[in-house]
Amino acid sequence: MREQWTTESMPDQRGRVALVTGANAGLGYETAKALAERGACVVLAVRDVEKGERAAARMAGDVTVQALDLTSLDSVRTAAAALRSRLDRLDLLINNAGVMYTPKQTTRDGFEMQFGTNHLGHFALTGLLLDLMVPMPGSRVVTVSSTGHRIRAAIHFDDLQWERSYGRAAAYGQSKLANLMFTYELQRRLAAHGTTVALAAHPGMSNTELARNTPAALRLPLTWLAPLITQTPAMGALPTLRAATDPAALGGQYYGPGGRNEVKGHPRLVTSSPESYELAVQQRLWAASEELTGVKFPIADSEGSPLTSGSAATT
To answer: Which family does it belong to (predicted)?
Structure first.
């Protein structure tokens, strides 16, 4: 029988600096807590600083808090500037925070809430912090996706912000598909440099606050079924932790629960939807994301142009 990967499988993280978005509760909290317990210096990047401070107080080790609201590009830029002033390196960036099945609404910049928060906010944050990572051997960007990326799997370039029509599940699926396409295109761009790598993970069905916007018709049945079909946030965080710390993990890989249909279980390497691997769509999404956020990454494009130096440009 194959050995099951747990937090006990994690190597020592002393000397490493990790940033986890949405780390005051749920999957982010468990991810940050495990990294801190293994010796990493962990920054909790959270929208509610008070909640973040309370979460940090429950963790052992070197844990600090940074204000970050992914629904505002101004906040993302302010947070990135603050982090750059206090950190001289970044070894792990865990793009964990997200929203799910929200009613139709927009971010402060006018983006559809799920696409803007789950994808564009993290795209911008990664670009603004990446040059703290590329000098660090073994550094990793891990972005949390979902099996929901298979829901009506497409990037709707003709209506990215769902202005003509809106479906909660389909919009969520687009945002989670975007997370994977971002990871794969980022890894392609990073490969020429050879230090930082990009990976993705998903938590399966984990019992967290993320599902609070589930439509009412589904909420009661899911509440009854939850003990049977969900796992704890600590278990749900394991795929992210494996992608972040397993010495055998490689850039471009995707980790999820190893049980049936990837719903529960210990983490293993999994495969995303065929649509997520479409190179031309990945590149088109990257270009659209740069235009929408005004953030251009300080790395080669996927055609192999030379790496540039300095921080990400903004427009």
So the answer is: Belongs to the short-chain dehydrogenases/reductases (SDR) family.
Q: What is the dihedral of CA 206, 211, 217, 223, to 10 degrees?
A: 40
Instruction: Look up the CATH number of the domain holding residue 157.
Output: 3.40.50.720
Write out pLDDT tens, residues 283-303: 999 999 999 999 999 886 655
| pTM assigned to the model | 0.90
**304 vs 12 pLDDT, higher one:** 12
45 in a structural domain: yes
Residue 304 counted as domain residue: no
Q: Of the candidates 214, 256, 210, 261, which has an alpha carbon nearest to the alpha carbon of residue 235?
A: 256
CA–CA separation, 148 vs 303, rounded Å? 30
Contacts (Cβ under 8 Å, ≥6 apart) of 216: none
Residue tagged active-site, from 29, 101, 166, 172:
172
Whether residue 309 lies inside any domain: the answer is: no
The pLDDT of residue 227: 52
Indicate the pLDDT class of residue 207, thresholds 50, 70 and 90: low
The two tokens of residue 282 are 């990945």
Q: What is the mean pLDDT of the chain?
A: 90
Whole-number Cα distances in Å, 15 to 12, 42, 58, 86: 9, 11, 21, 16
> Which parts of 22-166 fold into alpha helices (H)?
26-37, 49-57, 73-86, 113-114, 122-129
**Assigned domain for 315 exists:** no
pLDDT for residue 206: 64
Number of structural domains the chain divides into: 1
Range of the domain at 240: 8-296
| Active-site annotation holds for 166 | no
Rounded to whole angstroms, what are the CA distances from 121 to 4, 34, 158? 34, 24, 20
Count of C-beta atoms within a 10 Å radius of residue 215: 11
Contacts for 219-227 with beta carbons within 8 Å, 24 or more apart? none
Residue 230 pLDDT class (50, 70, 90 cuts): confident
